[in-house]
């Protein structure tokens, strides 16, 4: 075999080993952990399926349809059996009524794993797509490291394997979409982004970027390579066709369903007096601060909307002015816009930080000074979930506790969480609110800096990083992995 | 060839989604929901209950018949909320609209703003649901709450979910409700409406607002009421004195409060939840639906029965007067529902005695996705000989 062939083979072995390890971690965690309130809608949907009910009939599923369909696929083995789908431990009942942070009904570990399976596979797909992106962008030999940065990313593991949310699926769709744009496979780029929107609505924010991508592609080429305006029109038509195909396939069957519109749009619309979460609304998680902010809420919301529009426009303009430079600004655009969305959203849940993370990781691989941003944004959202229970991690082990009484019994869990829930911090405020606001502040700072990095770095050469070879310890690690796999 | 991997990735995602969609469709066709059919029989009313793919534990209650009435749910972003969020306040409407609509409630469920709610109060005897935690001042009509009083006197029904009955009032554009809010009525609010205290304890300190009740009353057990907050719930002693009845879960420490109560007011009724909505819109809307569908807002329930029906099996229940001759309403409202976590299955029927019952046949199944209206074959299984739902002595639960 030629030396090049050996190198490719060796890198493939490494990648395979990384994928297996990433999968193993997720599969080991998935059955025994969860953010229990977010399991309930999936459980109810399975119960509905047992009675043959349509997806949106009773407003229990409030997302676009695709994850609901995947739930039908993975839960099929559980439908016809008489097996128990979940239990409602009496020990958790009181606290689950007091607090919306704990569910009174807990799905079985097998069903919990089934809920998470599509997202686990999506994580693998995202890692492979990110490796492909790294190669396209000229990061060359760093592709396996880029894949590893996703496979072993704490937030990616947490959201998919612990929490049980399905953000990994639209994340995969957006990363694939970028990769396909870089390859000028416009039809499939449209299909990928459209699929993403049909999982969660947020990839819709990237639609303007996708629609101007053919213009960027043409502007980067010189002379006869640039082709005619006609080629741009054809690319746009292909993009639009790609966007439309999934909408027709999955949206058309729901066209006359009023319940679907109510479930997806009415209930998810922003109607809160004040925001909260990890964006710029972070101080509002402290109730007295929220009370002070209520009169200014409309003004703040308008200002944040303006910031989003101006920031996104700024990113587009900055990218356009540097379109002829060596780097392709698409990754910065996608990452930057998603950071702005998170900063300005009324409710930025921790799992949402997953959305820009693949792009921020890639930017971090190019620019050493920006490397700490994805690190911060991979850890802070997890701390936010822990902060909601004043740092008590037992809240994430509910399935293990309920079904195996490990590491504590359900009664001990309830007692422990009760103490955490009512723990008081400085100034007599509930400790959990103070911790949440603190984590929110750090996350917001990270998102602001990531937006600025995206704004200023678009067009910088990616290829500079290609010349870098992995450091000696990494080369040694690669060799060991290859040997162990063989 | 270069983008092949990414194209395969996008196609894999699309194919998985298509496979999921196909699974949804196949499951919807091959799994069936429970069905209930009511028909005139030898007794007052015969209910045939049929499980779908899964076994079901049916609950059936019987109460006094009152015609379905339009339901209006107040949702107005210009007024501040107390103890809940905008999304929950709107969510209660969404869920109630869905649940009542699919359960056989023949009248519309409509979202109204404060101005429209005022028109409802002035012109109709319908049902108004206020889940904002505080009552908008315009709807009160003044310190003596004349607008609400005339609505109830005319036969209207107010379903109130808040922090104390009319304790707090809200004003348009007011950013938040505070202890110094101008229009706050305090405990004088319930005095003005009812002429007596219902929630306020005159003999001791009031309960903490977060008080959780744990002992279901008979009606709560019959209806599967899930709301357990009782810190601002009706005191049972006051409820009795006002001629009301307990539909909720009761607290254990005296003075005992209930999480859900009905108080007749002239021709109308007040249905009072024991505290604010919080984020429990699904549970509260489900409880409201069961109260309305069972007729327990009009009069106490008279009978209840629980029946397990096996996989694709049927059971028959006869409703008839008890042997002791307890008076049974000439027209009854019968609610059949499934309490095992399936808040989507509930249906209400009118059952009539005497000649009027002859045309009372109707069928209900879970709305879509099941073969709606499929005739039930000869019932077999658990209760093929029929089981009787017998009105409780004295006409209802205590």
Can you characterise this structure?
The complex is a heterodimer of chains A (486) and B (398). Chain A contains 21 helices and four strands. Chain A has 486 residues and is mainly alpha-helical. In chain A, the strands form two sheets. A two-stranded antiparallel sheet of chain A has the order 1-2. Chain A has a two-stranded parallel ribbon with strand order 3-4. In chain A, helix 5 (109-136) packs antiparallel against helix 6 and helix 8 (168-182) runs parallel beside helix 10 (207-219). Chain B has 398 residues and is an alpha/beta fold. Chain B is 25% helix and 27% strand. Chain B has a seven-stranded mixed sheet with strand order 5-4-6-8-16-15-12, with helices on both faces. A five-stranded mixed sheet of chain B has the order 21-1-2-18-22, with no helix packed on it. In chain B, strands 17-3-19-20 form a four-stranded antiparallel sheet, with helices on one face. Chain B is globular. The termini of chain B are far apart. Mean pLDDT of chain B is 81; it is low at 321-325, 354-363 and 365-398. At the A-B interface, helix 2, helix 3, helix 4, helix 5 and helix 8 of A face helix 1 and helix 2 of B.
């Amino acid at each position: 075999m030629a030396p090049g062939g050996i190198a490719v083979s060796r890198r493939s072995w490494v990648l395979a080993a990384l994928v297996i390890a990433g999968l193993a971690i997720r599969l080991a965690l998935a059955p025994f952990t969860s953010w229990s309130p977010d399991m309930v809608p999936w459980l109810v949907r399975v119960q509905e399926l047992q009675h043959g009910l349509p997806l949106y009939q009773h407003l229990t599923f409030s997302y676009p349809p695709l994850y609901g369909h995947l739930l039908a696929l993975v839960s099929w083995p559980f439908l016809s059996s008489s097996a128990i789908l979940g239990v409602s431990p009496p020990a958790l009942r009181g606290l689950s009524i007091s607090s919306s942070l704990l569910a009174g009904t807990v799905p079985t570990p097998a069903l919990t794993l089934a809920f998470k399976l599509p997202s686990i596979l999506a994580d693998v797909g995202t890692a492979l797509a990110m490796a492909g992106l790294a190669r396209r962008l000229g990061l060359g030999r760093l592709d396996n490291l880029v894949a590893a940065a996703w496979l072993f990313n704490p937030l990616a593991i947490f959201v998919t394997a612990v929490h049980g949310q399905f953000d990994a699926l639209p994340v995969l769709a957006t990363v694939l979409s970028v990769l396909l744009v870089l390859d000028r496979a416009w039809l499939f780029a449209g299909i990928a982004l459209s699929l993403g929107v049909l999982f969660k609505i947020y990839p819709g924010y990237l639609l303007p970027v996708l629609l101007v991508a053919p213009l960027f592609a043409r502007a980067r080429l010189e002379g006869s390579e640039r082709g005619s305006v006609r080629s741009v029109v054809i690319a746009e038509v292909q993009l639009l066709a790609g966007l439309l195909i999934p909408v027709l396939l999955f949206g058309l069957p729901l066209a006359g369903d009023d319940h679907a519109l109510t479930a997806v749009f009415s209930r998810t619309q922003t109607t809160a007096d004040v925001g909260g979460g990890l964006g710029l609304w972070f101080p509002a998680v402290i109730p007295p601060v929220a009370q002070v902010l209520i009169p200014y809420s409309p003004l703040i919301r308008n200002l944040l909307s303006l910031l989003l529009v101006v920031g996104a426009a700024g990113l587009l303009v900055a990218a356009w002015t540097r379109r002829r430079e060596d780097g392709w600004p698409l990754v910065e655009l996608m990452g930057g816009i998603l950071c702005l969305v998170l900063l300005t959203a009324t409710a930025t849940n921790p799992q949402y930080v997953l959305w820009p993370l693949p792009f921020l990781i890639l930017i971090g691989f190019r620019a050493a000074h920006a490397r700490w941003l994805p690190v911060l944004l991979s850890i802070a959202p997890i701390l936010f979930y822990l902060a909601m229970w004043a740092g008590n991690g037992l809240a994430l082990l509910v399935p293990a506790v309920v079904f195996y009484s490990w590491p504590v019994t359900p009664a001990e869990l309830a007692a422990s969480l009760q103490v955490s829930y009512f723990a008081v911090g400085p100034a007599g405020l509930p400790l959990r609110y103070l911790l949440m606001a603190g984590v929110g502040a750090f996350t917001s700072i990270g998102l602001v800096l990531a937006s600025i990095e995206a704004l200023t770095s678009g067009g910088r050469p990616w290829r500079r990083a290609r010349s870098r070879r992995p450091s000696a310890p990494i080369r040694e690690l690669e060799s060991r992995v290859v040997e162990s796999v063989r | 060839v270069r983008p092949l991997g990414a194209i395969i990735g996008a196609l894999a995602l699309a194919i998985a989604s298509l496979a999921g969609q196909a699974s949804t469709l196949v499951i919807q066709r091959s799994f069936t929901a429970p069905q209930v059919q009511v028909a005139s029989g030898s007794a007052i009313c015969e209910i045939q209950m049929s499980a779908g793919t899964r076994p079901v534990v049916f609950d059936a209650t019987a109460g006094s018949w009152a015609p379905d009435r339009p339901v209006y749910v107040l949702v107005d972003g210009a007024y501040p909320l107390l103890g809940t969020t905008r999304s929950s306040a709107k969510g209660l409407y969404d869920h109630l609209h869905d649940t009542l609509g699919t359960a056989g409630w023949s009248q519309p469920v409509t979202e109204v703003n404060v101005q429209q709610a005022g028109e409802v109060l002035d012109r109709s005897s319908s049902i108004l649901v206020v889940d904002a935690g505080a009552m908008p001042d315009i709807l009160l009509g003044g310190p003596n709450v004349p607008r609400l009083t005339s609505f109830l006197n005319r036969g209207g029904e107010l379903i109130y979910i808040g922090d104390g009955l009319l304790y707090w009032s809200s004003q348009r554009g007011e950013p938040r409700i505070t202890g110094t809010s101008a229009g706050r009525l305090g405990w004088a609010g319930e005095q003005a409406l009812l002429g007596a205290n219902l929630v306020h304890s005159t003999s001791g300190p009031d309960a903490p607002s977060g008080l959780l009740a744990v002992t279901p009353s008979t009606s709560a057990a019959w209806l599967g009421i899930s709301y357990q907050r009782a810190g601002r719930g009706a005191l049972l002693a006051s409820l009795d004195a006002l001629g009301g009845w307990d539909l909720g879960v009761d607290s254990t420490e005296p003075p005992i409060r209930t999480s859900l109560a009905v108080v007749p007011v002239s021709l109308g009724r007040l249905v009072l939840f024991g505290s604010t909505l919080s984020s429990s819109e699904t549970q509260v809307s489900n409880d409201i639906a069961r109260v309305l569908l069972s007729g327990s807002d009009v009069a106490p329930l008279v009978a209840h029965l629980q029946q397990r029906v096996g996989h694709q099996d049927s059971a028959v229940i006869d409703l008839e007067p008890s042997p002791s001759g307890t008076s049974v309403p000439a027209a009854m409202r019968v609610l059949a529902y499934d309490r095992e976590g399936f808040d989507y299955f509930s249906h209400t029927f009118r059952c009539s005695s005497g000649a009027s019952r002859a045309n009372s046949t109707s069928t209900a199944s879970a709305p879509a996705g099941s073969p709606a209206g499929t005739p039930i074959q000869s019932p077999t299984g658990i209760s093929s000989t029929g089981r009787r739902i017998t009105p409780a002595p004295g006409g209802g639960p205590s």
